Amino acid sequence: MDRTKIQTILLSRVDNLGDAILLLPAAGILKKYYPASRLLFLGQSYQREIVESCRHFDAFLDWDEVKDESLARQAAFLAEQQIDVIVHVKPRRVIANAAKMAKIPHRIGSSDRIFHFLTCNHIPIQRRKRSKLHEAQMNIRLLGSLLKRVDYTMEELEAFLGFDQFDHYPELAGRYLSKEKFNLILHPLSHGHAKEWPVENFLDLIRLLPAERYNIIVTGTEKEGETLRESLLAHCQNRVHDLTGQLTLVEFMGLISQADGLVAASTGPLHIAAAMNIQVLGLYVQRWQLRPGRYGPIGKHASVMVYDEDCPTCLADKNCDCIRLITPERVADKISEWST
After folding, report:
1. pTM for the model
2. Quick one: 128 and 205 in the same domain?
3. For 41-63, what is each residue's pLDDT tens digit?
4. Considering the domain boundaries, does residue 242 fall inside one?
5. Which of 3, 208, 279, 333 is deepest in the core (most CB within 10 A)?
6. How many other β-carbons are positioned within 10 Å of the β-carbon of residue 168?
7. Is pLDDT of 93 > 80?
8. Using an 8 Å Cβ cutoff, are 185 and 262 in contact?
9. How many Cβ atoms from other residues are within 10 Å of residue 97's Cβ?
10. In angstroms, how far is the first alpha carbon of the chain from the final one?
11. Within this chain, do residues 217 and 146 fall inside the same structural domain, yes or no?
């Protein structure tokens, strides 16, 4: 590969919000090596705001526009961008086929998908499933044919996030945020994408946090709100602001950017808040594919908590609910450290 001729690079990650955030450091490093190149992101519609809030990306390509079209139309969609390199960060057979049909000169895909041997011409050996590396570090390892260096520490990656092109919403601040108290966002649910701390623990946490010190905001989708209003919000209506189902993603990002802290499981809002450099606490299990060492948040003020780093069930890679044993008192103590 002649790196001097690369003008347009496409990162393909048709996936979740948190996964898009964890790809931002790789984008920042690519921009360091290829400052004059166009860097594109191929994703789903709901990832657009994340990508457009990162200064490293030049454009967002919406796969939802062509996902139900013919392979020829999908290939034409990619060919229109005159892409020199596509990196299949999240393997998708249909996208790999379309990229090959589009005759993108350099197509990078990891060796852990057999179809990459038929569709890609750069196939780094990578075994994500059993890797000890963080997801963000593995993303960068995939770019080995483009970069001079791929071995970055997690602390080094913080500087490459570039997640600072978002709008602030002063009306939200005036309505829901306090100038006198610590503004804490609680995001209890995760669409089932992560092991969740029990809702009753969140309720106990709210009761432990002094009302005179904390302004608490509960967030989530409208569907999650239906669950939370019965199990959580009905029991603490005068202590929290219920914003479930009331914010667009852009508005939610604006709210997060002006808050002081956020507590959640391993879900998109946790990663968004960490990338915005507010205080975050991620609640995790130690199971191999779910552990914070693999999917922990990236940011200067990001922290994580597990019940037991040596949980035998987690370390045996079995389904484990030890997250429920993280006590509300332990979480409250951590939050107290932020506000002192």
Report:
1. 0.96
2. no
3. 999 999 999 999 999 999 999 99
4. yes
5. 279
6. 12
7. yes
8. yes
9. 16
10. 53
11. no
